[in-house]
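Lab notebook: predicted structure, single chain.

Context: the supervisor wants predicted structures on file for every construct in the current expression panel, including those that have not yet been purified. This is the next one on the list. No modifications to the sequence; it matches the entry in the shared construct table.
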Amino acid sequence: MTAHQALPQPHAASAPPRARWWSIRGELPRGAVWCLAGAGLLLPVLLWWACSALGLSSPMFLPSPQAVLLRSVHWWNEEGLLGDIGISVYRVMAGFLASALIALPLGLYIGTYRPVQAFLEPLTDFIRYMPAVAFIPLVMLWVGIDEGSKVLIIFIGTFFQMVLMVAEDVRRVPMAQIEAAQTMGASRGEIIQLVILPSARPALLDTLRITCGWAWTYLVVAELVAANSGLGYAILKAQRYMQTDKIFAGILLIGVIGLLTDQAFRWLGRVAFPWMKR
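Prediction complete. Output recorded below exactly as produced.
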């Protein structure tokens, strides 16, 4: 008997389907993915409904799902919910896109050239630990209280993190690819354009997806600056009047919009990079 014959042979074909679900980084049928995702989203709602139905908490602190739904309908019909959603989406996307417009090329240079990294990365690391809310008084002095101040707060909250993440994505490009291009006589510009950027694009899209989620988390902070509309403003106003159902409605709406944005990025990644597992 040879050594090859003595080794135990894998029996992947005979493994039960459910056992393969728990393989490390295994694949799932699309139907199973949708069912599990739906169950994961539905379970907290059921627990929330059970707590309110059994009277385990006061409606002042934990309103029922029905109360939150009714408040959302009233907000839509009587209080201009569509306008609040529109202005909040504008502020978040404006701050996020402004961050991406500057952070992508800057992070590319930090990740590519060591002198740029040595010059800019410590400063970026230093500023990114400063809380965005602490900049509100300065932003009001510099920009005023118009829309620019809300956009700038979201920009500050996302820009410095995005720069460092982009730089790290660029640094993950294998050096062997760069050396191969250098061997074939490629210039520095050609290496950036034809080697580094194509290799880093999937990771860069994931970075944009993650930082877009961060931009939404700064919405309420941004709308502290003399706002009179928007989802964050509505949440803060509801807090003053103890309208807990409206607070829940605003938080859930931000979560839904953020989830839709995240799924849009994932869809874009599947279309642009079909060979990647997403």
